[in-house]
Amino acid sequence: MSPNFIHTYLSVDCVVFGFDHDNKLNILLVKRRLDDVPKEMQSKLPGSLIFSNEDVDVAAQRVLFELTGIKKMVLKQFKCFADPLRASSPDDIKWMSKEYKPNIDRIVTVAYLSLCKIDHKINSVKYVTVDWCPIDKIPSLPFDHNKIINESFLEIRRWIETDFSIVFELLPKKFTIRQLYQLYSAISEKKIDKKNFHKKISSFNYIIPLDEIESNVAHRAARYYKFDSKLFKKSNTKLLK
Amino acid sequence: MSPNFIHTYLSVDCVVFGFDHDNKLNILLVKRRLDDVPKEMQSKLPGSLIFSNEDVDVAAQRVLFELTGIKKMVLKQFKCFADPLRASSPDDIKWMSKEYKPNIDRIVTVAYLSLCKIDHKINSVKYVTVDWCPIDKIPSLPFDHNKIINESFLEIRRWIETDFSIVFELLPKKFTIRQLYQLYSAISEKKIDKKNFHKKISSFNYIIPLDEIESNVAHRAARYYKFDSKLFKKSNTKLLK
Question: Per CATH, the architecture of B8-162 is what?
Answer without folding.
Answer: Alpha-Beta Complex (3.90)
